[in-house]
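Why do we care about 3D structure at all? Because function follows from shape, and shape follows, mostly, from sequence. That is the central idea of this module. The next example makes it concrete: a single protein chain, its amino acid sequence, and then its structure expressed as tokens.
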Amino acid sequence: MSVVQGKTEPMMRYDQEYLSIPNVVRRAAAQYGDAPALVDGATRWSFRELDRQMTRAVRAALALGVSPGDRVGICAPNRAEWIVAALAVQGAGGIVVPLNTRFKAAELAYILRKSGAKALFAAPFLDTDYVAELRKHEPELSALHTTVSLTAERGDADYSWNDFLGEGSRAGDEDAARASIDRITPDTVSDIMFTSGTTGHPKGVVLTHGQSLRAYGWMAEQYTFRTGDVFLVVPPFFHCFGYKAGWLASFLHGVTVVPMAMFDPALALELIERERVSIMLGPPTIFQDLLAAPDRDRRDTSSLRISMTGGTTIPEQLIHAMKDELSFDIVMSAYGLTEASALVTTTRLGDTPATVARGNGRRIPDVDVRIADDAGKPVPVGGTGEIQVRGYTVTSGYWDEPEATAAAIGDDGWLRTGDIGSLDDEGNLAVVDRKKDMFIVGGFNAYPAEIERLLLGYGPVAEAAVIGVPDQRLGEVGCAYLVLRPGETTTAADVIAWSRANMANFKVPRDVRFVDQLPRNASRKVLKHELRAAFTGPASQGGDA
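And the structure:
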């Protein structure tokens, strides 16, 4: 049967050893001392200095009234202060709610309201002041009662970053901060990671300190993270890829973190050469862009050592180019979803480029993976069905969504991923289709139901159906089929312009088709397969993801 049972393998239990995410920083300060922990522009902190910054920030969070179980939003690009803010909230016993910086005010407000966030840390990004936009959109939002800028400029926030740290200096002491961190256990909730879904609204995945420590401590060990490595973290911190496989995994193993707010190939090559970057994880797009960069041949990339791609398949040709032209020794692929701490399977050292390209590796220790038919029964090896997961990485449920939790996780503990795949006789997973209708735009998951709900807010639109279509650069982009209200007129350009103003850019349809009616079955469900079959031609561009 197509089931791979996880069994205990000899390894360190990082959850039992480190207990909490803030405690990782304390342990790293003691172990690695003056070795570089974080490089962000002019900011260059040792592990000892990072610990000092964290302790100051925990004192400040306690002074602002963050208590155990309180939810606090963070909306900012990758930067040193994002990390310290997260450690501050968690050190005070709070729960971090990472927010997608591509989201518009309505999308952010929904998550802050749903999570019951009592405060917000934010920094402007791409000409968007999130606090100002939220105050205009929903001024009574509870999270706006206490707002902190992650920059020296206060803007519309209640506190600048220095003001915030000053609150900690005036109230409490270091012993109180340390005692607060000591109260955190591996079972304490560390974050609520909101992920979009077929309901049209994001759902909050509840995860604990222990789940993240155990999964990503092991992953980094397998990928040979080591003291002296330098990790250019391109994936955003609001995603497990940047946060947990990024800075958390690095601090566990004495690796220097270099945050990158927005990927730019020329800047990335400059940083790789200057900082001697050895680790880069991310979607295949960033490596394709590095290879195509005009000044690549003038830059020294010989320090690059480890890579892993996630979110989509990777062509074997690209793997060879990454090794031959960018100097990577190790190229991995993996499969995960937020509901399972974003880590379920991964390839291993020694796997051939062909193995890495055609699959997503084998299950991680102590996690079970099976392929099930529509009745929930395991299918034979090589058979295709739904990927289901059981084990410690699986969430306890969606925040304040008992019905959605029950629909996703059975009484037997199996998480129904909605992804379609198969297992070979060696346990290698191949994902052959994605969650129903979902498509991936440059590494970002885009869910048609959510985009369709947003498009219905555009006055002329009566009905909307969105599918993913091929795109040479981003992998896939959205194509919207729209039925207009009687008497209404609009253009594709107008729809795209409205979408860019009202939804995250990766969700914006790049192609818009107007139809008299959508194909539906007897139950009035839109027949997306007919729309896909009818699509011809490249998607028209509506902006970069």
